[in-house]
Structure formats: C-alpha cells, structure tokens
Amino acid sequence: MSLVTSEESTDNSEVDSLVSMLFSRSKGYSADLVDGEWKLLYNRSGKKSPKLQKLVKNSLEKKSVSDSTFDTKAMTFEGTVLTPRGNGALRSTVKYDPVGAGYTLEAGSKKIVIRRIMCDIIGASFKYSKLPKLPLPLRAKGGSLDFLYMDEDIRITKGNKGGLFIHARPDYVNSLA
Question: How many CA atoms lie within 13 A of 145 on its CB side?
Fold first, then answer.
C-alpha cells in the first residue's frame, strides 16, 4: 500500500477544499511544531514545478518513501527520496529563514500567523546501493515554502513553484496503517 498519493489518484477539488478549510484555522509555521521528522503523504506538482520534482513524484508513487527532517536550531531541513526500487537515495539540505512576507491575520484576535519560510538549497547528494555517496552540484537560492496548515501531526505546505505537499509525523502515519 502506497502512502503517497498524487493528483492522478485524488480529486483535486476535494484536496483543495480540505486544504482551504485547514488554512482558515490559522495554524502556520511554528518552530516548536516543525522540528523533527516528517513523512510525505501527498504530493501534487505545480505547473512551474521543476522536472526533477515531477520525476521524484513519480518515484514516490512507486516506492512511497520520502521524508524530511527539520532542525530548528540549525535552521535547516533535510529531505530524502528513495529510488523506485529503494536501493538509491537522493538527499538535499536546505537552509531556511521564516519571514514576514506571506503572513495572515488570525480571525478574531488579529494575531499574526507566519506562513512563509525562504529556502536555499545548500547541499545535495545521491547514494546508490553500496557505491560511495556522490555529491551533486545542486544549489538554489530564493525559493520559498508556505505553511498552509500545521499541527502536531500534519503539515501542509506549498512551494514557490506551485507544488502542494502534505506530510505527517511517522507515528501518526503508523497509527493510520
């Protein structure tokens, strides 16, 4: 059973309605909540998403293994995606910085809800089976990730190229199985 789903297997309008409802709950970025490991449950590439992201999405649908780990002390997160047969891993390290742009106001209290983190890819590598890890010259500056919703178990984000990502804590994923 695959944990990862995409737009081909899920009606976009249903997902968009759910995301809109959760967005209205005013639960954006929180350093306390984001710290630690997350598993990808859903990935929908945007029209402007890079070809590599679309390739990774196709790989995810076959293997269903992708994770990201936030380290709020270092202000970085690392992402890992396995190849379709699970014998290779693409890893990236991203430096991030929460910013005031893209914020919303909580209904009623008018409390500011931080939504956006600016992201720079600072490292990438590929490891296949027993071969040595190969560093990749992948670097990118100026990306962003908007936190549409986040609680203790679920994180919904949207990338600056339009990709939609739903992650969950590993323990929560295991409780669903």
Answer: 24
